[in-house]
Amino acid sequence: MPKTKTQGIIFGLIMSYAMAYGMEVYNIAIKMGFNLSAGGFSNMTNIVFWEAFKEALYMGAFVFLFSNLWGNKLGARFMARHCNPEKDNPYFCQLMRQAGTVAVMCPTMSMVASILFNLILGGAPIVQLPAIWVGTFLKNFPMAFFWNMFAAAPFSHWLFGKLFPNNH
User: What is d(CA 75, CA 94) in angstroms, rounded to the nearest whole number?
Assistant: First the structure.
């Protein structure tokens, strides 16, 4: 884990962009209708990865910003309420922190996406924002949770360990 402010920023950037990219692949595939086709997501084409990359470039910056403003702090509070780092398994505490962070960041980023993609770019009326936000959150939460637990966090820890081998 990061031991300096600079390492914390680097880890945060890796995690933010890993989460943003995975979520953009998921959302672009849905936007392109792959979830509704026979075979579902198994019929995705490579264009999804390119389109997701383009959106993740700026969405990752939003993730980084909001996770540093409140997501990481509230995730740490959630962990503190549900585990004792001195008594509990460190991996359990890490999972509790991840779960707490996702529980904060998914509604936050669902609001960002709702405003950006539905209101600003899509022209939806602002009075529909509550419904759009709830729908976006319901669509994204299961993916955000499992993507974080089983892909983004392990990848981020692995890459951080490669960049800073004396920290793990």
Answer: 10
CA distance 51 to 72: 28
> What's the DSSP call for residue 2?
-
Q: Decide if 7 contacts 159 (C-beta within 8 A).
A: no
- For residue range 24-44, list pLDDT tens digits in order: 999 999 999 999 999 999 999
Alpha helices by DSSP H, 41-149: 47-66, 72-82, 90-113, 129-147
Can you give the pLDDT at residue 1? 83
For the stretch 74-89, pLDDT in tens is 999 999 999 999 999 9
What tokens appear for 149 in the block? 């637990």
Nearest to 102 by CA among 42, 19, 44, 22: 19
CA angle 159, 167, 145 (to 5 degrees): 50
Residue 167 has pLDDT above 80, yes or no: no
Closest CA to 156 of 6, 9, 8, 11: 11
**Residues 26/143, Cβ–Cβ less than 8 Å:** yes
